[in-house]
Amino acid sequence: MTLFRPTAEQIAALTHDDRPVCAFLYDLDALVRQVRSLVSALPPGADFFYAVKANNDPRVLRALAPHVGGFEVASAGEVRRVRAALGTSARIIMGGPARTESDVTTLLAHGVERLHLESIQAMRIANAVADATGAVLPVLLRVNLAGPVPGATLTMGGAATQFGIEEAAIPDAITVLRDCRALRFEGFHFHTVSNNRDAAGHAALCAAELALARRWAEEHGFDLKLVNLGGGWGVDYADPDWRFDAAGFARLLAPHLDGRTRVQFECGRIVAAYHGAYVCEIVDLKHAHGRAFALLRGGTHHFRLPSSWAHDHPFTIQPHEAWNHDWPRPEITNAPLTLAGELCTPKDILARDVTVPRARIGDRVVFLMAGAYGWDISHHDFLCHAHPERLFLTDGAIVPERAA
């Protein structure tokens, strides 16, 4: 698995005479190689869906479509995004909390094949809307395990969170579901953790979830057609060269698949993270109370991930030799440097006190691993700053904008 590091030539191509550099670059060829390696690792009887929330650009969706089983969405807007990019043939499954009648109407209209229910209220809404249209909607019940569940950056289950139906209430939910004539119960959904870097531990968690689903199916007398085990295959932002052992994970999980119950995964971060970079020009350097700051054309309004996860995002500094002013060029050498954006808030930080060999005004900071949960989770219009360029590469060349 590769890591996209833009070349000096690619970064130079971003230079404009009238404004500092600020751009996302994505390598679609490397993205395809990544997803093919992940899908090929899975055992028979498992489907790999892409979690659209990680990066929903149409060019990303089109690049992935031939290589994944389908697309997992969490909103009506994402349903429409996938359909607009890929047409009616793409398989779509839908999850997420706070479902509304409008959501269910949209998924039925656009041929979404399955809904993951997170509450009794969502179940009743889905049943009412489907019944009114004469449809029968396949559903899974999302389970919030009793826990605790160790080993991941984010935990959606095994704790008091807003996600899923708590494990102890699943029997009651099954009872209610039996009376929902417009819903077809097919199994369970477990998206318990996100960004688990322990492949063996994650395989053990998934095996335990499968065993629990089978026990419920036996106790309540229904055919368990499907278990969705969510995503959670981790990346390590502190070590860009580290990789989740997808092959080892699949090998450990394979003995727990019985050939009768189909298994699905819905992964986003591990697919898209490695193949995007966020490039920002340093527009100012300053010292304040003993610390050095580089101020960037850009920031967390474009790339919120470092702030939301409270980490120092990996970066390199690409020198840019041109200096067109008649005053000395400020620089900082061999010193800790904090990378701050252009927003009027002290929280606009992308990396803090990281020692750099050299940084000058006009040099370009290249944030690696920016392909997932970067632009897509950011507050783009806070302070109404200009948006970055967003450029996609294939065969080393930029995909024309008309392909968006």
Automatic annotation (TrEMBL):
Alphabetized InterPro entries for the sequence: Ala_racemase/Decarboxylase_C, De-COase2_C, De-COase2_N, Orn/DAP/Arg_de-COase, Orn_de-COase, PLP-binding_barrel
Cofactor(s) the protein needs: pyridoxal 5'-phosphate
Pfam families for the chain: Orn_Arg_deC_N, Orn_DAP_Arg_deC
Domain spans labelled Orn/DAP/Arg decarboxylase 2 C-terminal: 275-371
PANTHER family, per the entry: DIAMINOPIMELATE DECARBOXYLASE, GROUP IV DECARBOXYLASE
Positions of the Orn/DAP/Arg decarboxylase 2 N-terminal domain: 29-273
Name this protein carries in UniProt: 2-[(L-alanin-3-ylcarbamoyl)methyl]-2-hydroxybutanedioate decarboxylase
